[in-house]
Amino acid sequence: METRIAKAESNQNSGLVDYYEGKLKKLLSMRKHINSFLKDEKTKIHEVVICDDMFVEYPYYIKTKEGGIKEGSSRYWRAALKLHIKRKLERL
Q: Are residues 50 and 82 located together in one domain of the fold?
């Protein structure tokens, strides 16, 4: 998104710059909301682990009310994640 803003600035297209900056503000507010939700749920997501060229894995842990920790990981198909992100950006 920042590269698109820089490209629009170099082309001196102020309308497009404002459009991208508005989308960037929405993205940052969504990210802030998601991070606060995860903090309230006491969930920590670690850095992505690249399994192979097709799959990525996100390890996580959740603090339980009893005082323990539950660990797990979610495995995703890379192409599906890219498509999901692309569609989400188009909807903004």
A: yes
Q: Are residues 13 and 51 in the same domain?
A: no
Structure tokens at 87: 């569609």
- How many domains does the chain contain in total? 2
Are 31 and 50 members of one domain? no
Query: Which single residue is written with the structure tokens 């995703």?
Result: 76
Same domain, residue pair 34 and 69: no
Burial code (b: 16+ CB inside 10 Å, e: under 16) for 55-88 equals eeeeeeeeeeeeeeeeeeeeeeeeeeeeeeeeee
CA distance 76 to 69: 23
Tens-binned pLDDT, residue by residue, of the chain (92 aa) = 778 888 888 888 888 888 888 888 999 999 999 999 999 999 999 999 999 999 999 999 999 988 899 999 999 999 999 999 899 888 87
